[in-house]
Specification:
The complex is a heterodimer of chains A (about 290) and B (about 220). Chain A is mainly α. Chain A is built from ten helices and no strands. Chain A is about 70% helix and about 0% strand. Chain A is flat. Classes of the chains: A mainly alpha (about 290), B mainly alpha (about 220).
């Protein structure tokens, strides 16, 4: 579409575009230079502010914090997928009560901010006599919120499959469970895999909310090291380093999603479905 | 019920701050996001690259990190002093704009090619085509995803609680200082958000009905 919005530029337009390109570059460079200058002027680039990266202990702690993030992500992702599968099955069930309960739970957890969910488990649960560690609060929150979104993704994937698939399976004498597990789910998962992975990117970013319920993950550590007077409070350098790590992790996952999507487009082994835009799929919380 | 009634002086003003935060950052990110979408479809490759870089970077950064940067790191740069509320609004806007941009761009893709071709044949310039022909139709066709992006942003406002903004997410902290039951208090906050989300979903359906484009 974007190439329909304008004509192939002629000599005059090309000149004008070049002029605008130069102008655009100048503006961006000016903004960046100003920011870098502010960084420089306020002493963010002095060696002392970056020294912390050289300490073996700091490096080890940084890796520990990264592992804590990855751990919350991995467990949260697995549980969210399981939760999503169960409640997608519930919403597609033949029994009205199962549909009702599943719809209620999915809609409920999607409407509540993830941070409030984590607060409920971390600060709220003690009122019931249960004290959960921050890790459990983070993982539970991630599971319930992202699991609900994934349930909708799974459901949309199954409903988008051509009707003939299930009709043929029923005609062969399969039961509902068989039709689901042997025919529909394998195809739905293949076609929804890119969407599922982009939801996992959201989940990965959401682990940073653990910072607010004192879960010692990557961002928590960045804030900690950034407030250390011994390193002259390198909060700007530490957020930059952590941002680079987060962006790299997310881009790796996104690259995986794109790779799978490209491979699928090539292979003819799966049914072409029109993927309905899963609501909120990439919006995410954090 | 007691927790709610005893602390109405918290729930009222704090939820009002949430709504203000939502309205300000919502309008700001709609404007900035649409501008970014304009950059991403512009005829100048450099503009497209700038838009794409911005969207890629922001969509892969946790919002909490944007908050940490604006609240703790940015003041050290001594550029312009921001209050906690403004910092939260800025953080939400620069993050949400990246998502709005992608929604608007997908909306631009739904406008039939003939519309832009006809506009080009009439001799309209790129900005005229985009602003008067394509965008009005594009935005009307993406009301649902646009609204769910805004609903996501509404829920994201709670993160500001961790950064000294007295909005709904911060009610818990004040309840704990008063020694009230935090579980019940949080459930009331959750209910508040369910109501706000329901209002937005209702607005979405109403807008969809009124604005749907006949094609």
């Amino acid at each position: 579409m974007s190439n329909v919005l304008f004509d192939v530029p002629g000599p005059k337009a090309r000149m004008r575009h070049r002029l605008m390109a130069v102008l655009g570059i100048v503006v961006v460079v000016a903004i960046l230079t100003y920011i870098v200058y502010r960084f420089y002027d306020s002493g963010q680039f002095t060696a002392r502010k970056w020294q912390w990266l050289q300490y073996a202990q700091v490096q080890r702690d940084l890796v520990t914090a990264l592992l804590a993030t990855v751990k919350a992500f991995a467990l949260g992702a697995v549980l969210a997928l399981v939760f999503g599968a169960i409640f997608a099955a519930g919403r597609l069930s033949d029994h009205a009560w199962a549909r009702g309960i599943s719809t209620f739970i999915v809609e409920f957890f999607r409407a509540i901010p993830l941070l409030i969910l984590m607060f409920l488990f971390y600060y709220g649960a003690p009122a019931l006599g249960v004290t959960l560690p921050p890790f459990a609060a983070v993982v539970l929150g991630l599971t319930l919120y992202n699991g609900s979104v994934l349930a909708e993704v799974f459901r949309a994937g199954i409903q988008a499959l051509p009707k003939g698939q299930s009709e043929a399976a029923y005609a062969l004498g399969m039961g509902k469970t068989q039709v689901m597990t042997l025919v529909l789910i394998p195809q739905a998962i293949r076609s929804m895999l890119p969407t599922i992975i982009s939801q996992l990117v959201v989940l990965l970013k959401d682990t940073a909310l653990g910072f607010l319920v004192t879960y010692p993950e990557l961002l928590y550590y960045a804030r900690y090291i950034g407030s250390q007077g011994a390193f002259s409070r390198p909060i700007v350098p530490s957020t930059i380093v952590v941002a680079a790590i987060y962006i790299a992790l997310c881009l790796l996952l996104t690259a995986l999603a794109n790779f799978i999507e490209r491979r699928q487009r090539r292979s003819k082994k799966h049914v072409e479905t029109e993927r309905p835009p899963a609501t909120e799929d990439v919006v995410g919380v954090a | 019920m007691d927790v709610l009634l005893d602390n109405l002086d918290l729930y009222g003003p704090f939820f009002w701050t949430t709504i203000k935060l939502f309205l300000i950052s919502g309008v700001a990110s709609l404007i900035f996001g649409t501008f970014l979408a304009g950059l991403r479809v512009s005829p100048v490759p450099v503009f497209r690259a700038i838009g794409a870089t911005y969207v890629t970077l922001l969509r892969n950064t946790p919002l909490t990190l944007v908050f940490v940067f604006l609240v703790f790191a940015y003041p050290l740069l001594e550029i312009l002093e921001l209050s906690y509320f403004t910092a939260a609004a800025v953080a939400l806007t620069i993050y949400t704009s990246a998502f709005i941009c992608e929604v608007v761009r997908s909306g631009i893709n739904t406008v039939p090619v003939g519309q832009a071709e006809a506009a080009r044949a009439l001799g309209l310039t790129f900005s005229q085509i985009l602003g008067q022909i394509v965008l009005p139709q594009a935005i009307r066709s993406v009301v649902p995803p646009l609204m769910s992006t805004l609903i996501g942003m509404l829920k994201n406002t709670t993160i500001a609680a961790g950064f000294s903004v007295t909005e709904a997410g911060a009610i818990r902290q004040y309840l704990s200082e008063r020694g009230d039951n935090q579980l019940i208090g949080l459930l009331w906050v959750a209910l508040g958000f369910i109501i706000l989300v329901a209002i937005l979903s209702f607005a979405q359906r109403a807008l969809e009905r009124r604005w749907s484009v006949a094609r």
